[in-house]
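Might I ask for a little of your time on a matter of protein folding? What I wish to show you is a protein chain and, alongside it, a tokenised description of its three-dimensional fold. I should value your view on which stretches of the chain appear to form regular backbone elements. You will find the record immediately after this paragraph:
***
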Amino acid sequence: MRVDAFDFDLPTERIALRPAQPRDSAKLLVARGTGIDDRMVRELPRLLRRGDMMVFNDTRVIPARLRGERVRDGQAVRVELLLHLRIDEITWAAFARPAKRLRAGDRIRFGDNLGATILERRDAGEVLVAFDDPKAFEDVLREHGEMPLPPYIVAQRATDERDLQDYQTVFGHRPGAVAAPTAGLHFTPALLAALKDAGIDSRFITLHVGAGTFLPVKADDTDAHKMHAERGEISFEVADAINAARARGGRVVAIGTTALRLLESAADETGAVRPYAAATDIFITPGYRFRAVDLLWTNFHLPRSTLFMLVAAFVGLERAHEIYARAIGAGYRFYSYGDASLLERAA
């Protein structure tokens, strides 16, 4: 499809630079059937059914933006690395700036005693980088890492101490993401307890969100866009619980596009979710047949982004534009720190 089919005008003032406080006080747009309702996040227990299954992404954001110096022939040049995919204990794929100043064998120095080596320079500003050992990697993150806020926030304000808490979900406990599963940022312990009391089940899967989620779609056609891979995991127990809930008539509610992408990657042709431990680069656009997910809880996304394309696939392109026009007109806040939507899958 033409990428410009997913374009829309978004006023700058609709971009949220801070989350709602408390988290569950954010606005919630509910789109079911042909209707659109304005609600609040904390009303979610009344909007789902007893027996529904919510699936959350429990990844935790690491301080993945690193600033160091490339050292070559006694000359130092400042460089920035944004880690996005872990290869092994010490090796990561990363986006580098300026990537053109790097080549295989270059040393990157962080402070006085910590370093890494460029193993390979790839296309589109990507490099493969190996830290000296696992302890050195942890030390670099602790001493030099910065929270990798999205570029549309960083362009308007600096990262600060509040973001260290604001940009993590309350249930994230598996470090490895370099971007938050932002749909989960709305949940509080009180809201999770209220959902449990309402008979709505919850399970946790892991997709370590990569920085590729921020990359613009530069191609004119979706067929020409390449998604970056992200590591995911669904346990046997969680897969069984999701399948059992569906067998009992419960609906699967993906909390965020990351949870949806992993569930769809793990689902077979019948819609059954299988255990999963691998990378996925699934790219969902209109025409995709959803197999595992009935409802999607998600924030509001950028024009022409792969995430808005996913929403358009889930509800239909015309319906997606209708929902977003309503959200803009009604003053909903967009992007990572913005408001939420609860979307019913198109028939």
Remarks:
- The mean pLDDT is 95.
- The first helix runs from residue 44 to 47.
